[in-house]
Each structure stands twice: as C-alpha cells, then as structure tokens.
Amino acid sequence: MSLVVGIGLRTGTSYRELRDLVDSALAGLEPRDVTQVVTVDGREAEPGLQRLVASLGASLFTATALELSQQPVPTPSDHVDQLAGTASVAEAAVILSGAELLVPKQRSTRATVAVGRLPDDQTPAAPGYAVGDRDVVHRVLAERRDVRRGFLDRPIADDVLTRVLESAHRAPSVGLSQPWDFVLIRDIATRRKVHDLATAQRDAFAASLPAGRRSAFDGLKIEAILDTPLNIAVTCDAGRGGRHVLGRHADPRTTWFSVAIAVQNLWLAARAEGLGVGWVSFFEPGEVGAVLDLPGHVELVGYLCVGHVEEFAGAPELVRSGWAARRPLSWAVHQEAWGSRGLPGEQPSAVIAEDAARAGSAVRAVAGEQSVHLAVVDGADGAEYLRRADGLVVRVGAEKPAADFGVLWRPARTVDEAVELGVEVARDLAPQGVAEIVVEVVEPSDITEGLARGIFLGGLACGVSVKGSDGVGEVSHSSA
To answer: How far apart are alpha carbons 129 and 352 in whole angstroms?
Structure first.
C-alpha cells in the first residue's frame, strides 16, 4: 500500500510538531508505507518539513494554491482559504495526488495533516526537484549564452575547471562509449594559429554574402580565441569501445551526438560557475586538428573559448544584433505525426496556411534587410541561380539533390502539401533576417506554383515582402 500525506503548515513549524501530528493521523497505518508528502508551493524549504520527509523516507511534492483550490474537500475553511488561497491545503493535496482520502484533516497549533491511499495499480512517480531547485535548472538553461565579448583577463581556478569538465564527462553516451576527450589550450602561439584559421574562414564567408548581409556580418564578433585564458578542443573517437557498442550499430551518428551532449553539459556547468563559453566553428576541423597534432583517428567536434566575463547578456547576441530570431516553440511541435501541429494541451492542426497571421506574428517585428532570390524548380539543378550571392533554390522533385545549403529539397506530393511547405520556407527564412523574397517559378506546374503560393502566404504572415521575379505581384491581403 502506498500512502500520501498532505500537509498545511505555517512558517517555522517545528519537526516535532509535524511528526507528532503525522503519527497521530497515521494511527493504525504503517509510516513506512508513506511514499509521498504533498504541500503548497513555498513551504518546501521549511526545515521542519524537510526533516519530516527525510524521516519518513518519502518524496516531497508541491502544488500551486490555484491547483489545490480546484479540489473539492470535505472540511473547507474560509480562514485557510484567505491565508493560503485554498480551503484545505492538506486534504486538497491528497486529493490532487490521485489518492483516496483515508484520514480527513487533523490539526495541531500550526499545521494540518490528511492521509490518503494511492490505488494499488498506481505506482508513485519519481519526484521532480523542489520548486526552488527546479527554477534554478530552468534558469541555467535559459541564461546559457554563446559568449564572444566582455571576457576578463582572469585565470580559471583549477577546482572550478575540474567541476566543469566533470559535468561534461558525466554526459550520456551511446553504449557508455564516452567518445570525447578535452584538450586544454592556454599557449598563445597555438591559439594564434587557430585564430588565423578562423579569420580566413570568416573572410571567405563574408565574401559569399549579399552586400546588405555582409554589412550586418561585419559588426558581428565570431570568436574570442585570443580574448580568453583558455580554449578547449572537444574531440570524438568514433571507434571508441570497439565493434559492439550498444545502440550504435543502426545509427553511427549517435557517437557524434554523444559528444555534442558533453559540450552542452560543459556549457551549462560553466554558466553555473559564472564562466562564459563561446563555440567557434569558423574553420575546417582537419586544419585545427593539424595545429593541435590530433591523432588521425580523432576528430574535432567543438572548439570552445572559456573565461570569466563582465556580464551575461539578457538575450543571444544574434538576437540583439538583429541577425536572427528564435523560432516560436509552436512551429516546432508536431503531435503524433509530422504536420499535426500544436502545443501540449492544444488541438493540433494540419494546416498552417489558413492561419498565416498567427504563424508569423512572433517574428514579424524582427525581419531584417536581407533579400533572397528564390527559384522554384522540379527536376532542374538550379545551378545558375546559385551564382548569385542572394540566390536560393527550392526543389520539389522526388529525387534528392546533392547536398548543398543553397538548395532546399521539399518533395511535395500534393498541391496542399506544397502550399504548406512553401509557408514553412518563408517563415523559416524570416528569423534569419530576410525582409524580401523574390520568387521565380522556373518549371511551372501545380506543385511548384502551390509552393510559390505558400511562400507568399508565409511571407505575409511574417512581414516579409514577397513578389514575383518580374517585380510585380507584391503580397497584400487581397492577393493572399
């Protein structure tokens, strides 16, 4: 049998008062059967309650006053309702947990207790963190930044760095293969060589950009290789663990995924320690591997600049600079099958073209100045359009083209699907600072023209100007 104890208590209620009250409520029941203690948010840090939970060997859960107030309770109290926002914390806590109320509310001077029994087929779930701890975890995730500016000329203490590396080393990995290693680089001569490689790649990328985008890029700082006291190269040994690594045989990419998780662990731990981290990707991994004299079987996955910083910005630099924006979560959630879009608790919808305004409202205000000339093709390779710095090709045919970031493969099977894919193309370009799309349907068909129509709808949603290659046909509400 699994018992739930609901507790309402005032600030400063002692362990002894709580224990005596619980023992009285449990008369005839076994204290060892108590698996959960539930109370209202804000009381989980009370020392007396924490000691009680530990003495029972139970898990502590909390609920909001609003959640508790929605539970029907047998012995409500107007006074408690005024103080706590719910008519009976103890009873409501038991009922909210899904337990059958066995012992109605009992009182002491500063606390109330109720006891319930969970159904035999209801195994208690493992507890989450207490509210304060949970909030800290979510805060670290929200405040992690890719830092490139404001590093201080201050060494990182060895114990701090060890804790950060230990967190990275705790990352999950396919088959527990732990394919990562960490190369700590402090030598300025080595870092200058890596910096030179990054500078060359930055110049090459800048030269590939349209003029307006190049101007915006010139204001961005892409690395802090020489600004930090420490660089960390994170590597991958794809063969670590030998032939029969559990879980790797069907998808070898899981090895590299494992290293990426280790990098994220490192990043979050560094943020918690007050260290900034910037991931540099402006170089060929093999060239950096040569500078670091990595063995031939070891690949570079991440190159990180790490150090103390003046401050952590309130938003990512690419957002603050207007270079890009975050996609709303609602764009990224599909329920049960691709295209059935909706957040948890919402009724999913398979059609985004009919809800264009809502689809793009979150990024409309951050559209940039970039213009894209977009060619819609079926079987053509579209190479001539890629000679333009602002050129982009969308290919709808069933045959997958060779990998090229200038060619988006969108194999639409129906006109309706083509429209939906077109909406997504437009609204995925908007967060990258695209303010204008010039659409050219190179191979007219129902499918290609449907995709073009979707681009018009998506552009309208996101505040992006969309027009035909002849310069007319700019989207308005009437044309959509």
So the answer is: 37
